[in-house]
């Protein structure tokens, strides 16, 4: 609040005091305190729910506001995550893109969890969420990223970190309306249209969002995996170089309903993409595709009774891997069978997940808040289809091998129960602690007790120290467990979970509500990490990895009209290869990452921004003779105009201005020139608010 206003209010209060009796003073003071208390409670609730007090949370957390990301020209969730300290991106032959947190197992999925409005959306097949990385930023109110395994949420183990996407379903009384229409157009014939809509009454809140988007992107790739003899020396001449079809089409409809203590959350997310670099590492046709639909419905009940809060949830989720593609080129020869017109295939695996959780929070003991509960999950394959060109004659007409030669175990199922208890202990105004444990048992493995301990020391309101220890794990994905009859990947149901013990300390210096420095160091002890290779396609627990590093981020301003954000992260470590009993440096990991943006508000209606990223070079895996992957830097810029009279905004963004070569590493003996990403591109965005 302005100091002049405070001074005037103070003078007014003194004048009133002189004119009041003691009785009147007591009455007025009581009313005033009640009013202030009510306002403070309201804004405290908002801050708690929106985690605006994230610096005091027992995690390493970074928060990015959707409206600020829009000013930067950030288009989707993937681009937002690329701003996070210690986070890099990777992909594979499916173009199944995934964020890599702190250099942890760049060839695995499921190490991080994605929540949309607190609902876990990782698919079961890969345990990834690539289909949600294109989620438009205009649909997102805020992105909260917690780094480290301490980010366990409602019975969900987040091995390397968790990503929480909060849509505009989050709404508070007396806050501005966020109904809007959005239209976008960009390079590669990218088009998007969508809306958000809120309805509120005394007891009922309804929110819905919808969008449709598509592009026609193709990326240079090759020579493909056949050049490395993955299907024998006879087929090496069939290797191709060309454009990989990485186009996509997507629509999504979300619904959030809250009536008193009952909530309903639902989303239908249809995602179709090109077959990219080929299921069997051979370049596919332009119209070959993979569908990754995702649907969920969750019912919730949350009630506070005196010192007890009850939070009960039950939900169902469906996700599918559905591929239709030309798998291998014409004239392929496998064991004497010649496929003159190539090999075609259709593969479908549909998974159903049922879950139910109940958590109880008790705050009746002074300075303590104890949470205990469970989460039960049932996962199973409910449909599977496997069709291929005739393996005996080489004829391209599809034969149904669902029962005789399945690509996936159609009987795959897994039940998991997680029990947890946690105590939040406010020892004093300066010290607070969180301690507790998780226990998990599933159909295949029991991970046992996983402890967690976190301390927050608030030396002053502007100087905060944190220290954390936690243990967590990642269960093998269904691709790693249940894939069958595939020369590139072989499932293994005897896999142990990957485990990690994490030690972290952090210091935060707050300059104001919007300006701070956050720095942290960490040490991660990873055990039983899961890998496979072209030479040995069976998934196995192969590597133990020790990782350590630090992260630094600053957010503030240079003038009263700008915003500045920069971060830098460093990671290093060693991988111990069990079979060979030797240690190797971390591979496929950039030791140095630097990112930042600057927004200058020319006026209340016009802003100009710049966004820069640096990704360091990456060493290859042991035995990979290719030169290390080169470092790259990119620079984006955006201009944003807001018309206050008609309440619309136009933004023009130019990305990768200098057309830098951006590549994600490929596995050894596959695509020798890695996976090249998009060069210079543009985006135009029109938003109309109501």
What is the structure about, briefly put?
By secondary structure, the protein is mainly beta.
Description:
It is a single chain. By secondary structure, the chain is mostly beta strands. The protein has 2 domains: 50 residues; 639 residues, Beta Barrel (Maltoporin, Chain A). Helices cover 9% and strands 52% of the residues. The strands form 6 sheets. It has a 25-stranded antiparallel beta sheet that branches. A hairpin with a 4-residue loop joins strand 30 and strand 31.
Average pLDDT level = 90
User: Gyration radius, to the nearest Å?
Assistant: 27 Å
- Globular, elongated, flat, extended or rod-shaped: what is the shape? globular
Structural class of the secondary structure composition? mainly beta
Distance between the terminal alpha carbons, to the nearest Å?
Answer: 29 Å
Helix content: under 10%
The H-level CATH homologous superfamily of the largest domain, spelled out, is TonB-dependent receptor, beta-barrel domain
- Percent strand equals over 45%
Instruction: Just give the CATH class of the largest domain.
Output: Mainly Beta
Might you state the CATH topology name of the largest domain?
Maltoporin, Chain A
Low-pLDDT windows of residues: 1-52
């Amino acid at each position: 609040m302005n100091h002049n206003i405070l001074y005037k209010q103070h003078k007014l209060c003194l004048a009133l005091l002189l004119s009041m009796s003691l009785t009147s003073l007591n009455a007025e003071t009581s009313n005033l305190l009640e009013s202030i208390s009510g306002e403070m409670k309201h804004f405290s609730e908002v801050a708690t729910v929106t985690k605006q007090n994230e610096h005091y949370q027992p995690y390493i957390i970074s928060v990015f506001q959707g409206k600020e990301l829009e000013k930067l020209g950030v288009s989707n969730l993937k681009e937002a995550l690329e701003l996070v300290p210690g986070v890099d991106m990777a992909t594979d032959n499916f173009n199944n893109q995934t964020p890599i947190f702190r250099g942890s197992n760049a060839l695995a999925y499921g190490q991080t969890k994605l929540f949309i409005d607190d609902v876990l959306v990782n698919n079961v097949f890969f345990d990834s969420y690539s289909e949600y990385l294109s989620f438009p930023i205009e649909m997102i109110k805020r992105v909260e990223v917690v780094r480290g395994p301490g980010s366990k949420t409602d019975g969900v183990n987040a091995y390397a970190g968790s990503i929480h996407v909060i849509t505009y379903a989050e709404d508070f009384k007396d806050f501005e309306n966020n109904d809007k229409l959005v239209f976008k157009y960009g390079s590669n014939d990218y088009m998007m249209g969508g809306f958000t809509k809120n309805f509120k009454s005394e007891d009922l809140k309804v929110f819905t969002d919808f969008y449709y988007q598509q592009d026609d992107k193709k990326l240079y790739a090759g020579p493909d995996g056949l050049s490395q003899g993955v299907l024998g020396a006879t087929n090496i001449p069939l290797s191709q170089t060309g454009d990989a079809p990485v186009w996509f089409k997507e629509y999504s409809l979300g619904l959030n309903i809250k009536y008193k203590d009952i909530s309903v959350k639902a989303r239908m997310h249809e995602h179709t993409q090109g077959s990219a670099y080929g299921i069997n590492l051979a370049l596919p046709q332009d119209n070959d595709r993979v569908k990754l639909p995702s649907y969920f419905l969750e019912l919730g009940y949350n009630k506070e009774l005196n010192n007890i809060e009850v939070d009960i949830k039950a939900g169902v989720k469906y996700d599918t891997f559905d591929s239709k593609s030309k798998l291998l080129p014409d004239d392929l020869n496998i064991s004497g069978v010649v496929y003159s017109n190539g090999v075609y295939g259709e593969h479908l695996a549909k998974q159903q997940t049922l879950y139910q959780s109940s958590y109880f929070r008790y705050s009746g003991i002074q300075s303590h808040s104890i949470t205990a509960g469970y989460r039960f999950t049932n996962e199973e394959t409910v449909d599977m289809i496997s069709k291929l060109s005739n393996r005996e004659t080489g004829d391209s007409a599809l034969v149904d091998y669902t029962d005789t030669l399945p690509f996936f175990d159609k009987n795959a199922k897994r039940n998991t129960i997680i029990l947890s208890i946690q105590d939040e202990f406010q020892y004093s105004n300066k010290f607070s602690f969180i301690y507790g444990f998780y226990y998990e048992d599933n159909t295949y493995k029991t991970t046992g007790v996983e402890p967690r301990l976190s301390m927050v020391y608030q030396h002053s309101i502007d100087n905060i120290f944190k220290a954390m220890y936690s243990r967590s794990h990642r269960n093998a994905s269904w691709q790693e467990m249940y894939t069958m009859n595939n020369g590139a990947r072989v499932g293994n149901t005897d896999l142990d979970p990957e485990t990690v013990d994490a030690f972290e300390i952090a210091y935060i210096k707050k300059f104001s509500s919007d300006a701070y420095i956050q720095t942290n160091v960490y040490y991660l002890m990873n055990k039983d990490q899961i890998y496979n290779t072209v030479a040995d396609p069976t998934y196995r627990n192969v590597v133990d990895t020790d990782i350590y590093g630090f992260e630094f981020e600053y957010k503030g301003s240079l003038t009263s009209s700008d915003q500045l954000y920069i971060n830098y992260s460093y990671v290093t470590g060693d991988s111990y290869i069990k079979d060979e009993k030797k240690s190797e440096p971390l591979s496929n990991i950039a030791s140095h990452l630097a990112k930042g943006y600057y927004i200058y508000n020319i006026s209340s209606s016009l802003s100009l921004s710049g966004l820069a990223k640096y990704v360091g070079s990456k060493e290859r895996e042991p035995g990979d003779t290719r030169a290390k992957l080169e470092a790259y830097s990119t620079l984006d810029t955006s201009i944003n105009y807001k018309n206050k009279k008609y309440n619309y905004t136009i933004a023009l963004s130019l990305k990768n201005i200098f057309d830098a070569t951006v590549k994600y590493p490929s596995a050894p003996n596959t695509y020798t020139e890695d996976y090249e990403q998009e060069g210079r591109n543009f985006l135009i965005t029109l938003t109309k608010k109501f």
